[in-house]
Write a structure and sequence with these properties.
about 80 residues; alpha+beta; 3 helices; about 45% helix; flavin adenine dinucleotide binding; FAD; FAD-bd_oxidored_4_C; catalytic activity; FAD-binding oxidoreductase/transferase type 4 C-terminal domain-containing protein
């Protein structure tokens, strides 16, 4: 799951909120737009997101409960 934010501060501020909601992700990774675009270019790929300058990449188990909770978070932390 990719959550998009307009700043790294907004991305970091959302992590405790996500964890307090009961979601226990396998991984949460912060990635800056410049870093991910440079990585994509190196690999001969293009980063598909056009909005935001900061991203949280979140891995969950795929359990239906986790998916439902993340649908809520997409509404709580909309892409900017």
């Amino acid at each position: 799951l990719k959550l998009t934010f307009d700043s790294r501060h907004n991305a970091m501020d959302s992590v405790p909120k996500i964890l307090r909601s009961g979601v226990i992700p396998l991984a949460v990774e912060y990635v800056d737009r410049d870093v991910i675009e440079a990585s994509a270019e190196y690999l001969g790929m293009k980063w598909p997101a056009t909005k935001g300058s900061a991203y949280l990449l979140i891995m969950v188990t795929g359990a239906s409960d986790d998916a439902s909770i993340f649908k809520h978070h997409i509404q709580v932390f909309p892409a900017t």
